[in-house]
Amino acid sequence: MRLLAAALLGAGLVTGIAVAPVAAAQSACADLGGTVDPDQVCRVHVQNPTYTLDYSFPADYPDQQAVGAYLTQTRDGFVNVSDMPGAWNLPYVLDARGTGYRSGPDDGGTRSVVFEVYENVGGAHPQTWFKSFNWDVAKEAPITFETLFRPDAKPLDVIFPIVQADVSRQLGVVAPISPADGLDPAKYREFALTDDSLIFFFGQGEMMAGAGGALQATVPRSAVAPMLAT
Asked: SS3 letters for 112-134?
């Protein structure tokens, strides 16, 4: 169903997302119909006979434009699906909860927010996936997996065995992660940085064909420190 929502978005059913960065930063929560609580967490709740939607995320994450655009697209794709003729097992559910992470000092280092997204659109198997955003405070720029490491580094040679060991520990069996998946940079797009760790997040089926459901794995920052560009 994520593919259907993406197809609806790709067909141009969602408009008006591109806004000026300053305006987006000031109004992301308000534009989503949310309120900011005393802990600086934006909370959005919409409930009607067709669907229930809940969002929460740190309202002080620096790149609110990117967060707001993603949540708007996700919401609109979900609503389009719930409004389609023949929708059944209503109400549908969309729940995206963003957790904040940071490393380094407040005026430097990095900031991260990772959304755990749960979607139930009436089928037998609801979906859970992750979406992360990472920000270099000093450079005032987003961090991706490609920019996280030095250009000449081969981080997955170190990361993959650690991830496999950590997932195996969580599952209580040897994690059946193939080298093709474990060494694929596309599998590591969703991550967060802390002072001590590099945490990777994997949605259902993204690393092990559905086994174990949604997963996360922690890599000690010391293991990859020489390769980090940030």
From this structure: EEEEEEEEECCCCCCEEEEEEEE
